[in-house]
Protein 1
Amino acid sequence: MRFIIIALALFLSTSSFAAQPKEWTFLLFLNGNNNLDKYGHLNMNQIENVGSTDKINIVVQWASLKNGKVQRLLMQKDSDFKNVTSPVIQDLGQADMGDWKTLVDFVQWGAKNFPANHYFVDVWDHGSGWHKLEESVVFKDISHDDTTGHHMTTKDLALALHESSKSIGQKIDIYGSDACLMGMIEIASEVSPSVNYYVGSEELEPGEGWPYDRFLTRWNNSSNATPKEIVQMLTEEYAKSYSFTGKKAVTLSAFDLNALQNLELSIQQFGEQIKKLGYDTAREIRKIARNSQSFYNSDYVDFLNFVSNVKSANISKMNPIIFNNIETTSQNFIIANGTVNYPDAHGMSMWIPAKRRIYSKFSSLYQEMRFDQQTHWSEVVKLISE
């Protein structure tokens, strides 16, 4: 058996091995070069509980601090729940998992050697949303690599997905962040030119992350599912996996990025209404923002909870049509929202700092982002922060 696995690995490393494209290739960029490493081992074994099938390739670039190397594996089903036994196709040594070009190389290699009609790219690691807030926290943006000190900014992630999309000749069907605090419209907007569906969590994720065995089992049982149905499955299984104990509070949501333009327009109109209000009303809205659902970073606020609270305040100069537009466009955009113990988390967070210090610290970076260029939201934040 050992000889067969070695022979298979050698064969795979020297050939393009999928003569006919499968329906899907799932590309997992698993950065365990940090204190999450043990959960990487857990998730790898969960994946091996299902393995690749005749419809779905599961390919992983796995960095493990314990193993001291970065490897590429074609995931195969096994019954060993303690050890990763799938064949190693390539050993990359000390590849930098915090470099966006490393992600591009993985996607290009995966698509070349495991071609498919559809692609799902998943970046696994710590995440901090679109910015780092606490000075004591090392982790920034996404995919922080302890061995190099490098990470991918939101701009880097967007560039990586853009180059990856160009290389495969189509938009990436699904992009997901198995990481904390990435369920933000700002990040989704940044990657939208290259991605159709986006998955992320508004709040911190538990170390165990996504329930890969549950999700992949359900996906394989519905292997003809559309991308929309797949992300809906993922969010449902994620919430279910943490709902049994009732002790953890989690969120995971999915966005249809093809509906983003209309939502951005309704947000821009909502912002224009706020900017027309006087100082006293702006102060009232600031108070509403502070009392709306926020997450680990207090300036990451659930946008729909915030809008609902503004609407309930019955501010006389606010046009009610604006609220209706946001409700309609957000329903088309947020196509799945799985939560446990978060009744006011409606699926999408946004940067709404109530403190001027936070605004001043990050405003110049925010104004470079695609979302602000479309909506001018930073002007609203400047008005209501103090």
Protein 2
Amino acid sequence: MNAGLADAAAEAPSHVPPPLVRDFDLFHFSAPTADLYDECSRISREEPAVFFTPHHGGYWVVNRADLLEQAYADWELFSSEKSVGGAGVPPSPAEIPAFLPVEIDGAMHSELRRPLNLALSPRRVQELSVTARALAVRLIEGLAPRGRCEFVNDFSLKMPMELFLRLVDLPLEDLDYLLKVNQDFLRHPDISRRHAAQGELTAYLDGWVRKRVAEPGHDLMSNIVHLQVEGRPLTHEERVGYMGTVLAGGLDTVGGAMAMSARHLATHPEHRRHLIDNPGAIPNAVDELLRRHSSPTFGRYVVRDVEFGGVSMKRGDRIMLPLMLHGMDERRWDKAGEVQLGRSTRGHMAFAAGPHRCPGANLARVELAIFLEEWLKRIPDFAIDPEGQVLFEMGSVVGLKTLPLVWQAA
């Protein structure tokens, strides 16, 4: 990211001071082999609290932990509503149904979250953990004799994704297709391909939603499509949009967190040993690893003229809220770039905050803890394969594209 560009400033609205314009592109801001969190750390240290990027239609970018906390909490000032712009970066095409309940605010948002809150309650998550552990053990025991793997595709995408497909009762044989389309939707650098992928996911879900309406089961999708809000059933478009949110959330973020955690442990044997010797430390370690490697970015629409973070925002402006900048803010976290396994992680924003906080947080924590427990039991010593290449991916959810690991096979 450059310090400032005159040509970019020329594209900014007249109320944006030219010195605050930056060439920040969420889909291009680091080379694939560079550690994108190092770049986030630099941005957090060196760039203004709020700056403006002309990319993707133009956004204010919030670059301080305290301001991110305020913005996520204030839905009346910074709206997620599809009708006024939505939560996507960039906004999704008008013909794509709103991603519910993410792209709606207020009382209806609360009503729409009910099936997710029930499906992902602590008691239900405890039941799902049995299946999650069995999946993890099966995958790890299949990998252990090989002495190597490409962790992202061999494990961190497969375990949570298979669990998710079971939760919504979608065919396991669709896994590879859905992963590919979802990756394009969240990360492809070509906006036309991202929008095309959104369309493909919408078309895929359209048929399944119609099937569940006609033949309901006992899965999460059935509960969603038969939900009533404000005394009425959901429309078909609302059902498809809701399932689009669930699909995108369930197919990527947990796997990304696993990959970043595996990368850290591969390069920090002292932390591996600590968790092996002190399994009771794993829950806190999960939250610290999540804090250090927060990944999603959401957008908002400014509802009214406001002074925020020292800048004048106008009604209709777009604002970008990258959660990785929260986790890397030295003003909020002492030595933010370090993983400190004993650190208090209270207030981290890996799952966002406010009314739109991720309802899958409980399940994500359990899946990550199970991964650490079962992997370290069976493959306690592993490293990054020097013959391979660690590749990062940018996008609305940042993460790893490849993570080659090696260990001594038994």
Protein 3
Amino acid sequence: MTAELLSEATEHQRRARVALSAALASGPSHAYLFRGPRGAGKAGVARAFAAELLAAAAADPDDARRRAMLDPSPHPDLVWLRPPGAQHMVEEVREKVIRAASYRPFEAEKRVFVIEAAEAMRDEGQNALLKTLEEPPGFVHLILLTAEPAQLLETVASRCQPIDFAPLPPEAVEAQLADLGSPDEIAAAARLSAGDVSRARFLLSGSGRTLRSTALELGRVVGGDSPDTQRESASAESPPTTPTAWRQLLDAAETAGEETEAATRKALEDEAEAGMKRSAKDITDEAKRAGRRRRTEVLDLGLELAGSWYRDLAAAASGAEEVVFNQDRLEELRGRAASLDPSRPRRALELVQDTRRRLDLNVSEELALEALAFRLAAVFA
């Protein structure tokens, strides 16, 4: 049963399967760090691994596995911590993990604690967890899941055995997107998702489709136009700055940030009413942080999608259509790539990537995008 359960959960994660199967055979570590992109299946593998740990010495192993695999799980020795809002609160980590880890198992010989989105723990929470990671009771196993390992303190990461997860292949992502769009649209979302099923689903949602259309419009208007449009641009007194395209991208990011801030504020206020200790200032600060983070994520995704247009233009112009990401725009790409020097869209992609790096340094988003539009226009002038 062990091989079957882990094999199913790690179907596309061979390295994780080998490492965890070996751990179960030789003796598991006290702490693991599952690191890899969102949507790579870390939570499913963590649940299957936890089920095997709890079943190992259970009176009824099959029943222990069954209960551990449920979500939420009724197994008393499996504690699964998800961030309730934008971040794990310090008191939650203290109560549900640190203090609870001192209690002996209720029915199994082990207790398993899983912390989803471990990067969302505040520094205070991570520091509080250090002693438990360093000297846990012999019956305790901790599993931290993260899509952003760089956000974890080195002192935390170094005390865990890393288990790496690779992005899912496009065909595996496509298999989870049935009926969410046309075959070509699903193929495009799978390739643009970089193996992240949740991102692929977002791209096929109403908001995701709008963001993608806006991002691709930035690519279309500035570069890769038909010869007639290029001649019209060249005859203008100044290069096209595409204010609508890049400003729409900013607006889309701003809207996403505001929606996330409002949703986070509502969730935190509900929890405060239910008895969780949170001050009004804590709620406001955390909601704003969540909104800013979402705004930044959406803006970066929009630029990444715009860059995918230039990447695909270069591929089509080079006769390599089989590697095109935007499969549902293939006919349009063919038309725009005709007689186009592939070096131009490649240079445009470099400029987009440079802007993404600049935004990481907290430069003005508006000025950075406006400058990008001028620089892109110059490439195709």
